[in-house]
Amino acid sequence: MIIKSSLHLLGLVLNLAVVCNGGITSPFVRKAEKTVDMPYESDAFQVPHGYNAPQQVHITQGDHKGKAMIVSWVTVDEKGSSKVLFWSEGQKKRMAEGKAKTYTYHDYTSGYIHHCTIRNLEYNTKYYYVVGIGHTERLFWFVTPPEVGPDVTYTFGLMGDLGQTFDSNSTLTHYEENPLKGQTVLNLGDLSYADNHPNHDNVKWDTFGRFIERSAAYQPWIWTAGNHEIDYAPEIGEYKPFKPYTHRYNVPHKASGSPAPFFYSIKRASAYIIVLSSYTAYGKYTPQYQWLEQELPKVNRSETSWLIVLLHSPWYNSYNYHYMEGESMRVMFELWFVQHKVDVVFAGHVHAYERSERVSNIAYNIENGKCSPVVKDQSAPVYITIGDGGNIEGLATNMREPQPDYSAYREASFGHAIFDIKNRTHAFYSWHRNDDGVAVKADSMWFFNRYHHPVDDSTSSQS
Ligand SMILES: *[C@@H]1O[C@H](CO)[C@@H](O)[C@H](O)[C@H]1NC(C)=O
Ligand SMILES: *[C@@H]1O[C@H](CO)[C@@H](O)[C@H](O)[C@H]1NC(C)=O
Ligand SMILES: *[C@@H]1O[C@H](CO)[C@@H](O)[C@H](O)[C@H]1NC(C)=O
Ligand SMILES: [Fe+2]
């Protein structure tokens, strides 16, 4: 009797513990399974048939406002043509010429990696394109974004730390089949995880490229560099950071005045997207610092309502993985994000999901005696960690207890998210775990724009 009621009491206390500090720690427990890479012969990595057939085809935005596309692919038998033939329905065909390069990495030599920028595209138009001209031609298509404007609806997908396991495949399939229909992927970095294999086995970069082609050849993936892109390995004679990544994934950094492909910006529909690099110097006087300082005042919210930042290592993270790794960058830039009313910051790195309250940690200084430095702040972004793409390293399950006040929702499950912009004031955000059917929203929130509609949108205040 006594035992039973005290157990009952314990149950109550445990239940309370789940929700009372800060936000929600999801009670959902995913069954523990090892995350393993799909085998080389897997259907997900299929090599296209035909002599010198282009493989690993992927596209990304090629200019600042969405009227150009960078088309990239790899040929392996010989260099072949770097030309792209492209047209829209009823329009005459045009040809653009790119360039191809190879690189070596320890004992690996890459295929010919082609990049070709096609320009002067019309907005909101379906284009067909062909690569592999002269050998095995392959046809793909994409749709350009609508013209930049404050109320343009547009749907972004979010994936981070994807890798190439069976779980990665499940994440990508869920994204593809999500009825919310993402139009462009914002990728938070850590792509292939080649560096988890002996000598950073760069064949894994090739299989990763073939894996994502089924999505990335048809809609742009916007790239952020993560730590698994560094590939700095002096022990095997590889001294040039980001060598495989920069050869394979081009971005339009020059169009935003950036001196390096690790930090840049694009406008797309009603969003202004700033990509930062957690692994490129950001201290005062560095190129990234100077670039961002000039960049933020350029954002015109009457033109692009939504200000979104992508980076790899999260600033607000309550898991016992990579805890506080983002601190030094937060210290450098957080004040600017609050001043410029960034709507949301997406990060990866931690292999789990977490959404923060709108908080900042800028009031605190070492003299003012404020010992709870993180405060709710309606000018601050929401911070979302979406590093749960499903890579070979597995899930981050170990959380800090109690859940800190800044953390609104956290769960260690694989998944992806959707940021669905409706107009200048509203965007619907949802997170979708792989363990559910494709239409299930495991976490969601209506975002109110910080510039046009700076009303409290926290999920805890709404409930
Ligand atoms: C990967 O996902 C696709 C699409 O759902 C499926 O057709 C394919 O069989 C999967 N491959 C593996 C190795 O799981
Ligand atoms: C901001 O964008 C609006 C809408 O395109 C435009 O009318 C205005 O001139 C721009 N402001 C600046 C300072 O460029
Ligand atoms: C913006 O979108 C939201 C959500 O769909 C809607 O409730 C609101 O009325 C829209 N605002 C305008 C001005 O259309
Ligand atoms: Fe990472």
TrEMBL record:
Residues 155-353 form the Calcineurin-like phosphoesterase domain. It catalyses: a phosphate monoester + H2O = an alcohol + phosphate. Keywords: Glycoprotein, Hydrolase, Signal, Zinc. Residues 54-144 form the Purple acid phosphatase N-terminal domain. It holds the Pfam family Pur_ac_phosph_N. The keyword Signal applies. Its EC number is 3.1.3.2. The keyword Hydrolase applies. Residues 1-22 form the signal peptide. InterPro entries: Calcineurin-like_PHP, Metallo-depent_PP-like, MPP_PAP, PAPs-like, PAPs_C, PAPs_N, Purple_acid_Pase-like_N. Residues 380-438 form the Purple acid phosphatase C-terminal domain. Its cofactor is Zn(2+); Fe cation. Belongs to the metallophosphoesterase superfamily. Purple acid phosphatase family. PANTHER family: ACID PHOSPHATASE RELATED (PTHR22953), PURPLE ACID PHOSPHATASE 10 (PTHR22953:SF86). This is Purple acid phosphatase. It comes from Prunus mume (Japanese apricot). The lineage of its organism: Eukaryota, Viridiplantae, Streptophyta, Embryophyta, Tracheophyta. The gene is LOC103335714.
